Amino acid sequence: HDAGKFDEAVVLAEELRQSEPENKVYLYLSASCLMGLKRGDEARTLFEMLLAKDFDFKNYEAATNYAALCAELGERPKAIEIYRRIVK
Fold first, then answer.
1. How far, in Å, CA of 57 to CA of 78, rounded?
2. Cα angle, residue 22 at apex, residues 19 and 24 outer, rounded to 5°
3. Is the CA virtual torsion 72, 73, 75, 81 positive or negative?
4. What is the spatial distance between Cα 76 and Cα 87, in angstroms, rounded to a whole number?
5. In the chain, where does DSSP find H-type helix?
6. How far apart are CA 67 and CA 73, in angstroms?
7. Which of 3, 17, 22, 77 is packed most tightly, with the most Cβ within 10 A?
8. Rounded to two decimals, what is the model's pTM?
């Protein structure tokens, strides 16, 4: 993941997530890999699951990435809403 090898990392991240579906770190890793692979709809689902559990996860890193994904997907109002929530 950190090396940008999302195609390899997503396989491992998904295995981890399947073993512990509620684990926030594994949700985030999977979502980040999917985002890196431009699989935005799949990443959105995982980011939403994670943020429903813990909006400020990793000092708002997940929320910031989700907002960027929403903007990338053309969902500007949703991105703005998330950024506003982060600032609050």
1. 19
2. 105
3. negative
4. 17
5. 6-19, 24-36, 40-53, 57-72, 76-87
6. 10
7. 17
8. 0.91
